[in-house]
Specification:
about 210 residues, mainly alpha, 8 helices, about 45% helix, elongated
């Protein structure tokens, strides 16, 4: 028997074994899918993509139930939508504001809308505000579950205004008397005229110093 014939026989005997291995591997994959143990499906949580996005229909349901224990997750209100968009930073106070969302949401003429009408709202909003709809949806699906704090940063002008209003060195009149030289509040002494029974006249600068120099 030639070497070529031996190789051919060995190959023919190996094919059934390889086929059996492939069948077993496929069976294991099927079992994992049925039990929800595939990557991203553990504990029954929605499957996420590589960028940690939650499927749009799943996160829509989460936010449509946010703050409303009686909601079935099928319809969302403007208030819930605004909370979602703020968390996702779609509403940034500049390009898109709550005034914008109110205008286009109310065009649907319903207090609550389902997912199909909500996508129409997003399309209309994106078109009129000249924002990429896919970018909006990406932000909405990657912002995480409801409840994450997403306070918008204060503008430089607002921060400067707060600093100016809280600078005690610029206070005048009776307000100036409520703080000492370091800016610390005097408490009740800064709000009421308290009777001084020490015997010194009001405004005397050398109180309690006589014994120290003699």
């Amino acid at each position: 028997m030639t070497i070529r014939a031996l190789i051919l026989i060995d190959k023919m005997s190996a094919e059934p074994a390889q086929e059996a291995v492939e069948q077993v591997s496929q069976g294991v994959k099927d079992v994992k899918l049925e039990n929800g143990s595939a990557p991203g499906a553990a504990n029954g949580t929605p499957t996420k993509t590589d960028d940690n996005a939650i499927p749009f229909k799943d996160i829509f349901k989460m936010f449509s139930k946010f703050g409303d224990s009686k909601s079935d997750g099928k319809q969302i209100t403007l208030s819930q939508s605004d909370k979602w968009m703020k968390q996702a930073k779609v509403i940034d106070g500049k390009k898109i504001t709550t005034t914008d969302t109110a205008i286009y949401f109310k065009k649907l003429k319903s207090v609550k809308v389902g997912i199909e009408d909500y996508q129409k709202f997003l399309d209309d909003l994106a078109k009129n505000k000249k924002v990429d709809i896919e970018e909006i949806k990406k932000k909405l699906t990657t912002c995480g579950q409801p409840g994450i704090s997403t306070h918008l940063p204060k503008s430089p002008a607002a921060a400067a205004a707060v600093d100016r209003l809280t600078d005690t060195t610029k206070y005048t009149g009776s307000h100036k008397q409520r703080f000492d030289d370091t800016g610390k509040g005097k408490g009740i002494a800064g709000r009421k005229d308290l009777v001084d029974g020490s015997g010194y006249v009001t405004g005397y600068q050398h109180k309690d110093t006589y014994g120290k120099g003699h």
